[in-house]
User: Fold this.
Amino acid sequence: MSRTNPAVDAVSGEPQRRFVYDFDHDHGVEPMTLKALLGGKGANLAEMTSVLGLPVPHGFTISTSGCRAYLRHGWPVALDLEIDDAIARLEARMGRRLGDDVDPLLVSVRSGAQFSMPGMMDTVLNLGLNDASVKAIVERTGDARFAYDSYARFIAMYGRIVLDIDATLFDEHLRRAMDAAGVVTESGLSAEANAELALRYRAVVEEQSGRPFPQEPRVQMREAIEAIFSSWNGARARAFRDREGIDHDLGTAANVQAMVFGNRDASSGTGVAFTRNPSNGEPVAFGDFMVNAQGEDVVAGTSITRPLSDLDYLFPDVANQLRQVFARLEAHFGDMCDIEFTVEQGRLWMLQTRPGMRTGAAALRMAVDMVNDPAIHLTRAEAISRITGDHLDQVLHPTFSSSSPLTVLARGLAASPGAAVGRAYFDAESAVTASKRGERVILVRAETSPDDVAGMLAAQGVVTARGGLVSHAAVVARGWGKPAVVGVSNLLVEVNSARVGDVVIHEGDWLSLDGTAGIVVLGEVELASSAAPAQLEVILRWADEIRAGHLGVRANADTAADAAAARDRGAEGIGLCRTEHMFLGPERLPVVRAMILADNDEEYRDALERLLEVQRADFVAILEVMDALPVTVRLLDPPLHEFLPDLEALLIKEAKEGLNDDETRLLAAARYWHEQNPMLGVRGVRLGVLKPGLYAMQVRALLEAAQLRLEAGGDPRVEIMIPLTISAPELALARSWVIEAGEYVASKYLAPLQFSIGTMIETPRAALLANEIATHADFFSFGTNDLTQMTFGFSRDDVEGKLMAPYLAQGLLEHNPFDVLDDQGVAELVRLGISRGRSTNPRLKVGICGEHGGDPASIAILYGCGVDYVSCSPYRIPVARLAAAQAVLAGKAEHSR
Amino acid sequence: MSRTNPAVDAVSGEPQRRFVYDFDHDHGVEPMTLKALLGGKGANLAEMTSVLGLPVPHGFTISTSGCRAYLRHGWPVALDLEIDDAIARLEARMGRRLGDDVDPLLVSVRSGAQFSMPGMMDTVLNLGLNDASVKAIVERTGDARFAYDSYARFIAMYGRIVLDIDATLFDEHLRRAMDAAGVVTESGLSAEANAELALRYRAVVEEQSGRPFPQEPRVQMREAIEAIFSSWNGARARAFRDREGIDHDLGTAANVQAMVFGNRDASSGTGVAFTRNPSNGEPVAFGDFMVNAQGEDVVAGTSITRPLSDLDYLFPDVANQLRQVFARLEAHFGDMCDIEFTVEQGRLWMLQTRPGMRTGAAALRMAVDMVNDPAIHLTRAEAISRITGDHLDQVLHPTFSSSSPLTVLARGLAASPGAAVGRAYFDAESAVTASKRGERVILVRAETSPDDVAGMLAAQGVVTARGGLVSHAAVVARGWGKPAVVGVSNLLVEVNSARVGDVVIHEGDWLSLDGTAGIVVLGEVELASSAAPAQLEVILRWADEIRAGHLGVRANADTAADAAAARDRGAEGIGLCRTEHMFLGPERLPVVRAMILADNDEEYRDALERLLEVQRADFVAILEVMDALPVTVRLLDPPLHEFLPDLEALLIKEAKEGLNDDETRLLAAARYWHEQNPMLGVRGVRLGVLKPGLYAMQVRALLEAAQLRLEAGGDPRVEIMIPLTISAPELALARSWVIEAGEYVASKYLAPLQFSIGTMIETPRAALLANEIATHADFFSFGTNDLTQMTFGFSRDDVEGKLMAPYLAQGLLEHNPFDVLDDQGVAELVRLGISRGRSTNPRLKVGICGEHGGDPASIAILYGCGVDYVSCSPYRIPVARLAAAQAVLAGKAEHSR
Assistant:
């Protein structure tokens, strides 16, 4: 379809060589598609004016091409002429003239780049006021206080924003004027006091700028526009663009719009509204309105706020008109809109519209409603794309009630989402006891260890002073979906109390925490309920339809209980079953230690045999829960010293009171297996090499469990995963152990059992050598936690607490790479690993099982890398299902471009 | 030049479709260039016969193409016909016939692949003997013992090698025969006993193979050749080829050669010789000769060995002929040759020639002599390529005298090359005291720390039980060129003694160690002197000429003394000056600790100011020694806990006796800075971010030192290096500190000072993001130690001792990647880093400063990666200069291909 597009050159498709566009200019295409030229705000105003025909105060946009021309070669002569023309049209339409001494036109000047951006100059209101026009406003409004207040504010705003004068210089005069008048709010100042203030502000401007305050509105306007253009290159804006990867050459637009006055009289007013209820999603408009007021009066508190529904009897015509406008906007934008409007002497003016913020529950309800609404006709894909991970977190976990005022006591790492309230206890035993007598409990520890798990289970939430996002506390809490804040570095945990600065928390004190935000509050904060709305399941089902065949979602689950929680939430299998947790049970640890301490082959084999028995039972339970779905079992990974008592504690005990024989043996073993850098030490398949038979035992336990499931009529689907591979011969060797153990088990049972063998890719070398390694692997699973640690040289335990905050604050890193997968470094290794792996093994299946598997931004990156599935904590499954669908949709959009 | 080449098809250049080539066949090209067809041994025999016209017993080669045809399709019919023809020609020439019962021809059959290869079938001698021909040999030689001994040996050899019969079955009969005869050597057996033995051997063969021992020489020959061909696919040979990357399709050749008998009579004999002295390189032939003996009699000890010079009066004609042969061989091969020859009844037969092994001193002398010898006319490039790093180690460091028999007490890691002898002391103080009273000392420690350096300095060499190749002991010893063996895992160091198994080493016991081989010997081993021959400097000068403009060699040196040692040895600058060693002096450590413990800004700045003073003085001294050469100074790198007392020791002391106030403060700091994985912790530029002003202080100290040098008329060339970079903004920030400090210093001095700013690339991420990072860097220096640790996930401290040995033994890794740069993983990151870095900064200078900078194999890989210079320990400089030249030569050869 060919159509004239006056804003765009018909041949080249490039913007025409003009700089100024009225809001109602015939743009030829939908103005919202011209954001690059008109900026976001300009496009929005033009869309409302020229496409929707809504009542918007007239005005015009100086395009980003004007800004670019200005920044390159200085103020273009043609721009002055175009602005003159645009002003003339505006004056004619409004029947008022800029700077007129009878009925002056006032305008706002606002910046509006393609992307919203901190550090840019924002808004100058009431431009056009000067010593003459302010008197005309007094005449026409009969409100001298309002007129001089507006003038004073304009001068200060102009001085501050356009002329870059220190705001405190104006504030000082304001404070003195208020002291002199004996009032505590600006609105308490009289007309005379405001007039006096305007004079003083003018003197400040003249003193600081070395020239008179510009009385000529055209000069005011040009200077304001120049200031907007120049602010594009301000340090903060540049830094922001650097960080966000936004092109420095885009430039910003500027918008000039006639002022309308909601504070003109009792038939005027101003309001903000949502086209639906942003709290619960009900399809009923929702908002506030103030009679005889301007937007900024909300802050000043000079008028009374009324609910939007009051409009029905206050201004019934406006109310009717607004209802039509709302329907129009929703049908046009296909979304709930957040509106600003003004009524001037009974006439409605729309000032702004944009997609409205909403709660998680509202987002879900609206998304489903709008798909079913024939007037809006949202597609399922669009509905999916409107829901964020934060929305789901809100409906899946309790949150602090938004009505509760919060005083944050301390901040830490947001380790496990959701809010919790309870009484503080400082050891597991007290926590359990208190919980048994019916108290809600928050467990507060310096850090947690396996000894604390009973207390964690009894608690509503967990707070620790030390540890990062993969500390014991964080991992366990996430696994149980229990809110947790960890690494609260200024929290000092003592015996039966804790301290943050001067504040002491005693046992039994009420404490609240928000594990989504990472904050701890002293006292009992009210929680918002978290019953997930019915629409959640609908959205997730749609999400599953979209991602089916593209991106799977599995869970990291180590026990049958974890597996059940994961399957309930829609997991399509287990992507990571860590067998080490099976070694840590109180009745098992002694056997594991016996295996480590074994003096001879017989002791060693005996310990392995006992471990086999218990592991087999564990596997049977997990395979039963996950029947007919894949279960990826990782063979033992952690360094052996994790199964031994703490070396430091043993040494201190030895120094203090001596050790018995068993302890002496344990000390020797702890010393032998102690490592300088356990992250880079003897673990993963390296253990398999050093401890012959260990992996074979685990494989036997697993395959025998699968055989028992087969005999019971089940459908076990086993995938065996070798951790920490660095070379092809290493994986070939480990594969041979698995196959040998498999043949041994097969010889004992009748039914043939299929299983696959793969490896974790978690060292940079494994990613680089993936082509060789893939020849021995049926699947890869990227361990992005460890891969991130090795790629950055970041030990989470050591750098997250001390380093991450200053690094993020100073822009040395864009994100915490443990939260969001590093797209440049780590993801490049993932991409390399996948393409090299598939180059030699085209049928290679690829998953990831680091913490990134539950992070929406990371899921998008990983899907782009080519993974077949992500695996995450059971409680992140809904978020991952949604994010996976969004990644698939984004991929299709990318592809069709 | 067009020339007919009967072995190679004139059109296709492929070998002709024939399988058998007489040694004197007109090959058309030099046979040595046909190794792929004839195998190494066949080519060598053909070269001596047909090119050099030397007296070689006649024979023929069955080519590798014959082997390939056999392995693919079975024994080719054409091959039988060709062999028949070749045998006929051989019989005609020798005037003897195979299996003849009057004057039988005997032959040897030997394998000979293109590359020599363990696991291949080797040699069958005396083939052609059978029940008839053995009698003819008795007749002709008159020596029945010899004839039956030969026959028995042939049967056993044939059974063992061709028919794969267990050797012990033959040995058992031999043992019984010797017991029966009451003799202790085989040569003591009578003719009858040997004849009996031959019968028994034949019975073994018949029993084991289930058929008669083949009497027909043509059958013997075919079976021997088939055995050779089949052994190509033996498990050991395959594994070897896998490891070495040799194509499995090459196949091997087989050589059939007429036997000659040095044990025929008193005018016969056999000898081995070198054309020059392999010990010192003197241009005088050197060897051993035995009258009336065969090669294998050397082992049996039945004849007396005489020096080669005895030939002059024993067999003056042979001696003259040999002299001519030697000259001919040297002129032809351009190298010292290692010869086997036999004299049969006064006639000389050459059996083999190959390049001879030589000592380091001999290698150097020969290389220089041969360049100056008009008959040989070696090029300098060829001379350079003949010297190995081991040759240089031999002449640069003392070695165990080769005449000393050694009983190795324990093995460890070869941490610093050279041999040392002294009395064992187990603490630094005793070592210093003993050294002062004139004793030679070996310091034996569990591991060393900065407290041990005085003892290390006093010692001849160092042995430690723990630690890897970058442990404190290893790094310090290498830095001083002092022999060291570290990580001797079965060494248990106690107070004033040590223990290896049941052997106890007491204080004052003599101990010897070889740090090149990594062995420890109880007792006083004689050392070979290490005065470097005069030719060393000549060779190194030639090496420098070759690598000039291609690959520089710098030193890792932290002190003026190190720098002087490095410059003496030809370093062209300092590639890595670690500033942390400057912090560890006994008078400085308290100031460093004051800086770490500082409670307020003033204390902190005061400590920095005091450090500045001492660092500046250090830098002045280093810049003076390295005047006019570049000095790359790395800003502080290690984690701060390295400057604090050991946490474990403090905790034990606290438990035992309590701590004073200072110790309590130190304990708190040690706890705070303690890290789970220091390798991945807060160090490098991360410290710079956390400790404001620290790097600026170091830069000021350095640039002020440079200014002082300028004022003194010096030419300081400063390069400032930021460690452990992970992102471009991080390096940009660090660069800004350097520039700011530079401007501050510049403002205080008149002379302008140029310096460059670069970074270490030691995290995988830095290599991957090198394009961004290079925009803020004048140079990169790859820290291949840390890059290896992070790429493999290998903490040297933890995996070298426990893991490396089993990994190498099982072929899971080809090399210890800390010895030889990992060409697949780590080197790929180096290649990526360099190409990406230069893509945005084409003038980027690139060096490497890990331990690999002193390893010849790694230097070759790194030159291929595109580095501009390598930097290594001062004592490795000569090796690096040579290896760099060899890398450049190899690169040119590669390029011209």
The CA atoms of residues 269 and 839 of chain A lie 67 Å apart. The two ends of chain A are 19 Å apart (CA to CA). Chain A touches chain B through 56 residues (CB under 8 Å).
